[in-house]
Amino acid sequence: MDWQGQKLAEQLMQILLLIAAVVAFVVGYATASFRTMMLIYAGGVVVTTLITIPNWPCFNRHPLKWLDPSEAEKHPKPQVVVVSSKKKSSKK
């Protein structure tokens, strides 16, 4: 899954869960049944999971281009810089 695919999956998940929650609440309120509301919401979670978790082709439309190992060796690796978090005390 590429970066844009991850973003799309995240947006789909949020939208689908919101729709499932609203539908579950309305149906549960109309039927005065907490059990019905929870079953509808659980069904929405299952459907959302089946849509967003597998690596579907629609989530791979922008593949990443990686460097060849020989090309990567030509570029230096970034150096780690350690910054001290101690504060100097000033005497007056």
Automatic annotation (TrEMBL):
Keyword Transferase: no
Family: Belongs to the SPCS1 family.
Record's function text: Component of the signal peptidase complex (SPC) which catalyzes the cleavage of N-terminal signal sequences from nascent proteins as they are translocated into the lumen of the endoplasmic reticulum. Dispensable for SPC enzymatic activity.
UniProt main location, coarse: endoplasmic reticulum
One GO-annotated biological process of the protein: protein targeting to ER
Domain of life: Eukaryota
Protein's name in the database: Signal peptidase complex subunit 1
Annotated spans, Disordered: 70-92
Transmembrane segments: 12-32, 38-56
Pfam families: SPC12 (PF06645)
The keyword Nuclease belongs to this UniProt entry's keyword annotation: no
Location of this chain's protein in the cell: Endoplasmic reticulum membrane
Membrane topology of this protein: Multi-pass membrane protein
This protein's GO CC annotations: signal peptidase complex
Keywords assigned by UniProt, alphabetized: Endoplasmic reticulum, Membrane, Transmembrane, Transmembrane helix
